[in-house]
Amino acid sequence: MNPSVTRDPARIAKRTLQRFQSMLFYGNNTQHQAELRTFREQAYGQQFYQLQSAYEDWIGRSPAADVIYAWDGHRVVGQQCCRSFYLKVGEQRVQAVNAFNLYVDEAWKLKGLGVALTTHLTEAYPIVVCQGISDEAYAMYKRLNWMDLGCLDYLVAPLNGCAMPRQKGEGLTRRVGRSLVTVLSRLWQRTRLATGPNVGLKKLNSLTPAQVSRIKEHASGYIQLEADFSHLQWRFDQTDYRCWQSQGKFGEAILVIRTRRVQGTLQWLISEFFRDNDTAISPTLAALLHLAAEHGVDSLVFHGKDDRLVSYLKRWGFITRPHGARFMAYCRDELLREACQSPRNWQCTTTLSDLDFADLFGQRHGHPIASVRHG
């Protein structure tokens, strides 16, 4: 037998999936719902947000959310949650899936069950993406030939002296440096605002797929979330988000903003920045800074992957911080893989995953983000 064939990650993953296939069920199978709940209680513990009824209700609103779980004949021993969506890859519209909350029971670890649960998705969808990845899962994904897209960008625009949260164990030098960076950033923002365009933002009571499609039909050059907006609309309509629109000679843009509290400061997170062209970025950011000041916001934050937007954010005084979540993807189609393997091609934020739940509900009720062990 050719050794190169036996070591092929895709072949090994398929054989592993075949070995466990009879154990795997979908979450819409109501036969094991009580056992699935018990498994999650034992896996995460009551203090983590994955066990909160609000989390289950929140994920349950998504029309594309599901869970694949493993049943050994007596109990649930593993799970992989997922939510499907569409990516625009060039002119193609490709169905993809976001993988999250992979967990394997201790007694089944190192037996291939985690590989089987993940491979179930990579065999079912052309593209699988994952954000917020533990060290253990990262090692497994690398063995399975996933693309390492680095970390999502995390940028902060401090709007006052308290806007940059302290780090644990931070000394005097760091505190002084943080304050100096805040002052310089704010001065630069004021200079840009004094010379920039005066554009207002119109508040939108709701955001429809038609509005997003109209803007996105002019956008090009990125692998980006397609305007199958219903897979995100449930989140924006029913939780703590606000939508704002800018229009002018520069074009049109729509911002989706989420409010959150961090160490007693008020933050606005830029969850989405839809625009029909990049010339709309600067006037929209200027309007956003004015609006944030009117609402007493301490800082603006962007957490995602969008190189062109990030370049503009830096010009407006946003500061890169080392808090970005890991970002990986799997693509079995060679042509698609060529386009997907460069981080510069991607345009997405954490609304693609469940990473923002802790900000919406978990921190509010004192439930920390779980450090999930993956199998």
Automatic annotation (TrEMBL):
InterPro entries, per database record: Acyl_CoA_acyltransferase
Assigned EC number: 6.3.1.5
Keywords, ordered alphabetically: Ligase
Superkingdom assignment: Bacteria
SUPFAM superfamilies in the cross-refs: Acyl-CoA N-acyltransferases (Nat)
Enzyme class of the recorded protein, top EC level: ligase
Entry protein name: NAD synthetase
Lineage: Bacteria, Pseudomonadati, Pseudomonadota, Gammaproteobacteria, Oceanospirillales
